[in-house]
Amino acid sequence: MHVVPGRAGTVADLTRMASEPARSDAPVRPDGPVRPDGQVRPGGPVRPVARVKGVGVVRGGATLLHDVDLVVRPGRPVAILGPNGAGKTTLLRVLSTHLFPTRGTVEVLGARFGHTDLRTLRSRVALASVAMTPLLPMTHTAEALVAAARRGTLRPGAAMEPSERAVARDALDRAGARHLAERSVRTLSQGEWQRVQLARALVGGPDLLLLDEPFAGLDLGGREALVADLDDLLARPDAPAVVMVAHHLEEFPTAVRDALLLRDGRVVAAGPVDEAVTDETVSATFGLSVVVHRDGGRITARVRR
Asked: Which CATH number fits domain 11-20+47-303: 3.30.460.10, 3.10.340.11, 2.60.120.380, 3.40.50.300?
């Protein structure tokens, strides 16, 4: 079978995510989804935050994902690496509960797709993506847009209550952007805007945080500052489970523990970062000979000469 590469997230993708009906084949199980709070249940390990097994996605005759497995565990941030069209954003859309796979099984927060109303999970799963930018009004302050996200809307409405303002500022603080609270978002740099979008994703206190190319458009200084702030965020005891899409190894925060490498919708390698990210696997992922370097927990790559 010819595999057609998936495409990166677009405004159309995100608009469709908001309008697609949830699959509701059965009610939520009586025990309900389990919060990934890091507590070990007697007699067994912590339940994974998400589990994807044998997942394939076919849309319009194109195979975007083929037989993908992934387990997301509390305290083990995952980075998904691959070239454009590898299927990274498609996998995030599955994890976000807005895209039902063509085949395979998916569990998110203890609930299995096809056995629950996925809408019941969406307040606990947050997606931050640069493709959201055209959907958001740019005439408001950062604080107002973050508060709107807390209400589950794109656009600010009535005046903020003091409690809403406090929650919004706390989310901005966690994203390293508290100083931007009263700035109009139209005046922000790309790096500052990325932080506001991160704050919008954090404000609802999600159990699963999905970051779609959080470093897109950032210069070296902006990238390194955001990497450091993400490391601080992920070190917090109340940090959500995180899955992030990256194009470059340099974008991996040191807190990333697991990696999934994709090419043409297929898994090249998966597992702990030190095992999954090697000269051989990165070379196979990008189709060129690459040398991987590690220094102080950070990873870089260069083309072999």
From this structure: 3.40.50.300
